Amino acid sequence: MNEWPQALRDDPAAELELADNLINKADALLRKHRGTESLVQHDDLPILTDVVTDFDDGIPLLEEAVGGNALPAAADPRQMQGQERARLVEHLVQIDTLIAREVETWLTNELPQLLSRELDTLSERLRIETIAHLRATLLPTLSDHIASRLDELDH
Fold it and tell me: Is pTM, for the whole model, over 0.70?
């Protein structure tokens, strides 16, 4: 589909003229394919732009049929924004509460297991390092003491 030329977008009168021209072409195409008898049959139907003046007075207006207070008064846009903001804040508070509750539940269930594993790992690592340090520092000293006692017994 072709877009409107830029010059027409800036000039409303030219745009309307082009639109009318297109509508006339479409009408001509419809008349060509439909034939003239169908146009005569539907000639009494009002066109969308025709003004209809013969309203039926027996039909009650919507306000009369439903009641004068059926439709709410149009709300102030600022009030609507305030209500939307309040609803958003309420949702955020609910989400925050849900997240806090889930984190607390998770910590209650998982933290003891995590701590137990880490403490077991720490305990094992500390035992291994202590034995290694003992062998590196205390064992030579003890060996020296034992060797000196044995030397004293031999003399």
Answer: no
